[in-house]
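job 3f2a | input accepted
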Amino acid sequence: MLTLREPDPGRSLRLYARNVARIHKRYADLHEVLQMAAAADDELAELWQALEDERRTGAGYIIDALLGKGPLKPGLDRDSAVDLLWVFNEPGIFRRLVRRRGWTSQRYKQWLADTFCDQLLAPAGR
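job 3f2a | predicted structure (126 res):
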């Protein structure tokens, strides 16, 4: 994955934001439906939990790759960084900003990239 191999941490997170935005454009509405259905069906609840766990695991891969490129934001440990990345890449945020508030996908992608860099990287890595 180009995102993981990119040596510059800021560029790596910007590539990741681009990928997340592309995925959410197709998946965010389905994500919401599945989340609501999970409340009423045990099998869907298991699927929902597995998807959430996989999304957090993926965030861990990104953070581990970043740790090999440079320091995280001062005071931010690995687990907290994974938590932040997991929360920021939640499809519901895309749905709210783009579908409900009328942001363009480009504006969302830029905001997401800026947020990733601001919240996760030491000032020199941005």
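job 3f2a | Residues 9-38 form the longest helix (30 residues).
job 3f2a | closed
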